[in-house]
Design a protein that fits this description.
This protein is of the alpha/beta class and 336 residues long. The protein is 21% helix and 22% strand. The strands form three sheets. It has a six-stranded mixed sheet with strand order 10-9-8-11-13-12. A five-stranded mixed barrel has the order 1-2-3-5-4. Strands 6-7 form a two-stranded antiparallel ribbon. It starts with 35 loop residues before the first strand and ends in a 7-residue tail after the last helix.
């Protein structure tokens, strides 16, 4: 076997020829400094629609991103054909840092979390007041997921012509969650639609709710079909004339600045991924009181310092009850 010294001459080094005739592999990846910025509108079986300036471009993820997946709402760097013309395909080479993430697991025993939406400012939790009956435990779980992911929760209560919203709103009064109550009759007149617009204006808002609560009807009113068609033929993803909410879809808000992200209806909202210690951050009046809590405190045990904090008048007892109810939601099933 031939050995080379510390300073071999070039003639001493043997280079194995590349039989395939292509370039040798390298670990040095291009920086793509001239890549265009875009926002992911839809994701469908490896193909993504991305808004670049005023054009909607079909793209796929670059190999160098590995297992890192882009989701609706992601800000991405795109190279390649950015014309948006039919049968063209661009390449996503970078996913920018996310300001927020809405995550869920299939159930509480599932260790694998899934990012549903990125970079949303708000989570609109759509709940019918009747037909179907409200599911407070599911609402609690969505609120926890919003706080955990850096989104502000808002309540959108539908079908108030069938039942009063007072009891449900009382349950969440201490959380100071913005809300809007809509009815089927008044909503068609536009007055309640205007109030929804006020909550969404200038924000990126993800909508979540289980089947039958009127979520898709609400989104259709906020983003009429004509507006959808101008959003780069997004409906072509389903192969039909309208979106069937089988995957998340970002749409520009009509009549105001902002975006609406329609997500598929949920039957459950697993919170296995949530760190309970992060939920307390949504309660700034209670968070300072955790300084004296024992290590690893669940905030629902005998030695929890929050009881003394509230007893000393630093916070409303109802706020502590709300915190503990939300933390307990992580351990309860949605249908309870």
């Amino acid at each position: 076997m031939r050995r080379y010294g510390k300073n071999p001459d070039e003639d001493d080094i043997r280079v194995r020829p590349n039989r395939k005739g292509n370039r040798p592999r390298t670990h040095i990846r291009p920086k793509h400094e001239d890549a265009a910025e875009g926002m992911v509108l839809t994701v469908d079986r490896g193909r993504l629609t991305v808004l670049v300036d005023d054009r909607v471009v079909m793209a796929m993820k670059a190999r160098e991103l590995g297992r890192k997946a882009a989701v609706v709402g992601d800000r991405v760097a795109v190279v390649g054909d950015l014309s948006g013309k039919k049968d063209t395909l661009a390449r996503i080479v970078r996913i920018e840092e996310r300001s927020s993430v809405l995550r869920r697991t299939a159930d509480d025993d599932d260790p694998y979390e899934r990012v549903v939406v990125a970079n949303a400012d708000q989570l609109a939790i759509v709940t019918a007041l009747a037909d179907p009956e409200p599911r407070p435990r599911l609402i609690d779980r969505c609120v926890v997921a919003a706080y955990d992911g850096g989104l502000e929760p808002i309540l959108v209560l539908t079908k108030s012509d069938l039942a009063s919203a007072d009891k449900l709103l009382e349950t969440y009064a201490t959380l100071d969650i913005p809300y809007v109550v809509t009815s089927r009759e008044e909503f068609t007149d536009g007055a309640e639609l205007a109030r929804v617009h006020e909550l969404l204006d200038g924000k990126v808002t993800a909508f979540v709710g289980h089947s039958g609560v009127g979520k898709t009807t609400l989104v259709n009113a906020l983003v009429p079909e004509e507006r959808r068609r101008t959003t780069g033929h997004v409906n072509a993803v389903t192969g039909r004339g309208r979106h069937t909410t089988t995957s998340a879809l970002a749409l520009p808000l009509t009549g105001a600045e902002g975006w609406v992200i329609d997500t598929p209806g949920v039957r459950s909202f697993g919170l296995n991924h949530v760190d309970p210690s992060r939920v307390i951050l949504a309660f700034p009046d209670l968070e300072p009181g955790t300084v004296d809590c024992p290590r690893g405190c669940s905030h629902d045990e005998k030695d929890c310092a929050l009881d003394a904090w509230v007893a000393d008048g630093h916070a409303d007892p109802a706020r502590l009850y709300s915190l503990r109810r939300l933390l307990a939601a992580r351990e309860r099933r949605d249908g309870d």
